[in-house]
Amino acid sequence: MPPAPPSGARQIWRRLRGRPAALTGGVVIVLLVLIAAGAPLLAAIEGQDTTSYHPGLVDSASGGVPLGHFGGISGSHWLGVEPGTGRDLFARLVYGARVSLGVAIGATILQVLIGVAFGLAAGLGSRWVDSLLSRVTDVFVVMPALILAIALLAVVPGSFPRPVLLTLVLGFLAWGGFAKIVRAQVLTQKSLDYVAASRLAGSSPWRTARRELLPALVAPVLTYAAITLPTNIVSEAGLSFLGIGVTPPTPSWGQMLSSATTWYQADSSYVLLPAVLLFVTVLAFTVFADGIRTALDPRAASRLRVGTRAGRRGAGTADSAATPADAASGIPGPADPRGGGAA
Questions:
Q1: Where is this region: Disordered (predicted)?
Q2: Phi, psi of 248, rounded to the nearest 5 degrees
């Protein structure tokens, strides 16, 4: 008796294991999330916090440059202190990870919820409903979201929690891409036999969407969310850098970069630490998203390897790995060379 084909999740994991860069990105993401979640514990282990000033650790005669080497690194301050104030950098960086990742993840979740709702309603609605919602979506797609975010953040009272405000602004202004992807998938899927059978059996549009369409939307929505999340991280950092995002004393990587611009010559470590963390975070999410995309769709070559020998070899391996087991697991197989590729 032949062995049972691997499940969809096992097949995706097997493909993902063949991409060391994506696995490395996933490990980095997990570590960053653990650091953000355990920020209070890590700061307590070091024995510092984000708001305590240490004027004795900076040289007032030189304008507040930290005393000692590499920004004042010591056993009590693992990554040194902030110029001018003497606040502990390690504590501010780990708490800044909580703010930056929290805003990006919250905004991405909000974008997914709004985009999926609009996309489903447009794809399953009547022609005039589809036309109306599509025009609304087009407005949000072409709208300069960053400029509107700057305007909204500038007029909202400062008493409103800035991380929550950033999450809401980014979430409500940048969901158009999700809506377009979901609408296109729904229009494709609802013409298939199993969806038509569900509707002919008397299922309501919501029941059809929940039982038949939503499972087919997991892969494209998950892939686009993984790509959108680093964009939200950069947006939060940019808004905080401009001084209209997270404001002191709440730490954020973007806000720390903004205040570090006047110290890059006197204390380069104060600039490098948040900049490197921001770069590594965005790179990890981007590489992991690319690996997820190619694992979910083995027909697609990695975008990070297009035009290289490794990319051509990876594409050939992915195509040869798409066997009948892939079809049995519900994962798309390679395109038919005669032009009848998998839907």
A1: 307-343
A2: -60, 150
